[in-house]
Amino acid sequence: MKLFEKIRLGNMDIQNRIMFPPMQKRRRDHYYINPKDCKDFYVNLAKGGTGIIVVEMTFINHTLPLLLGMFDDQHIIEYKNMIDEMHEKSKVKVFIQLEDALPGLCYVDEAPEDMMELFYQNFMSASVRAKKTGADGIELHGACSNLSKRMSLVKRILTGMREICGKNYPIGIRIDASEFIFNETTMNRTIDIIHELSKEKIAYISLSGGKSVKKEERVYFTESIKKITAEYNVQIISTDNASKYQLAESKLQCFDSDIVEICRAILCDPEWPLKTKEGRFDEIKKCAYCNRCMDSPIKRKPTTCRK
Ligand SMILES: Cc1cc2nc3c(=O)[nH]c(=O)nc-3n(C[C@H](O)[C@H](O)[C@H](O)COP(=O)(O)O)c2cc1C
Ligand code: SF4
User: Fold this and answer.
1) Domain ranges (residues) in the chain
2) To test ligand 2's pocket by mutation, which of 292, 294, 299, 301 has the most ligand atoms within 8 angstroms of CB?
3) Do 48 and 59 contact (CB within 8 A), yes or no?
4) Closest residue to atom 22 of ligand 1, CA basis
5) Does residue 301 have its Cβ closer than 6 Å to ligand 2?
6) 150: Cβ below 6 Å to ligand 1?
7) What span, in angstroms and rounded, lies between the C-alpha atoms of 187 and 54?
């Protein structure tokens, strides 16, 4: 089972090729939520055998309320408590997804110069804090956006993060693939973006499958990606509906995906990795892909499987 083979990511070994991607958990009635509200969820998830967990969208500034934040030094200790326990109870590697609240990577090319500078500085301060939490790496949230329009800013942020966190500290990025967002993100453009980002010495690029294309046309299935990854030491991570072991395994065996992200299926059964590894397939609580959990953040309810 390739899914359970170790893999090297940046400077570290990961116990298997399963990543739990960022997933917003709870919104509460105070300004930003505290990781202690999410601690039980993440510790339990870690115990289920997932190789890497990316802690959900964590904001570098406090423009948006009711979400996790990394804009104040007090956040360091809160995250550290949670991450220490995840490390204590399992072999999981923990990344934190950093995101700006406004104007967002989606719109930032339209922002005035001084705002761009503030945005850059906020990313740098949040990266320093994120590293101090004991997180094994950082993921830059670049999805829901056409990165080709703002590549120079993204590159500047990635370079800054590397300088500030050290060249061996793993930094990944999440991007959309062939989503045709604003009718602009096509397959070829996605491949160009992957090429540009690969030059930035990042540890991984996490790619969605692309909503508007047939399964066999998804970007991580293309020869061009294989050529890029052969040239640069960047791991490709694929997302979408890998609910069944065979599906996840086939992405690793047949296509150029190095790690598979599994979100809803693991939300449904956090022990999915352990049970799959031990062949206890009948014991897995199966995700129905009904998307009721997706309503949770909107309704400001804790995100759980609500099947
Ligand atoms: C409730 C919920 C919250 C999510 N929050 C985030 C998020 O904070 N950041 C992000 O990049 N993706 C987020 N996603 C998208 C997931 O990371 C993942 O890409 C998506 O669920 C597809 O994977 P799956 O088919 O394995 O579920 C969220 C998904 C769900 C269901
Ligand atoms: S609510 Fe539905 S989509 Fe979400 S984890 Fe549960 S079964 Fe899967």
Assistant:
1) 2-298
2) 292
3) no
4) 240
5) no
6) no
7) 26
How far away, in angstroms, is 293 Cα from ligand 1 center?
10
Residue type, 104: G
- Over its length of 307 residues, how does the chain's per-residue pLDDT go in tens digits? 789 999 998 889 999 999 999 988 755 544 556 777 788 999 999 999 999 999 998 989 876 666 788 998 989 998 999 999 999 999 999 999 998 865 555 555 666 777 788 889 999 999 999 999 999 999 998 876 666 667 888 899 999 999 999 999 999 999 877 654 544 556 677 778 888 898 988 999 998 765 555 665 566 666 667 777 778 888 888 877 667 777 788 778 766 678 999 999 999 999 999 999 999 999 999 999 888 888 766 666 677 887 7
* Smallest CA separation from ligand 2 atom 4, residue: 293
C-alpha separations of 119 from 101, 159, 172 in Å: 10, 14, 19
| Strands 52-59 and 259-261, bridge-based pairing | unpaired
Which among 213, 204, 175 has a CA at the least distance from the CA of 192? 175
Give the C-alpha separation, 178 to 181, whole Å: 8
Note the CATH number of domain 2-298.
3.20.20.70
In angstroms, the CA 266 to CA 145 distance is 26
- Report how far ligand 1's centroid is from the alpha carbon of 259 (Å): 16
> Whose alpha carbon is nearest atom 12 of ligand 1?
22
Atom of ligand 2 nearest to the CA of 288: 7
| 21 CA distance to ligand 1 middle (Å) | 6
Closest to 170 (Cα-Cα) out of 221, 125, 120, 206? 206
Report CA torsion sign: 239, 241, 243, 247: negative
Q: How many CB atoms lie within 10 A of CB 28?
A: 14
Ligand 2 site, residue 288, Cβ cutoff 6 A: yes
Establish how many alpha carbons lie within 13 A of residue 53's alpha carbon, considering only the half-sphere containing its beta carbon.
28
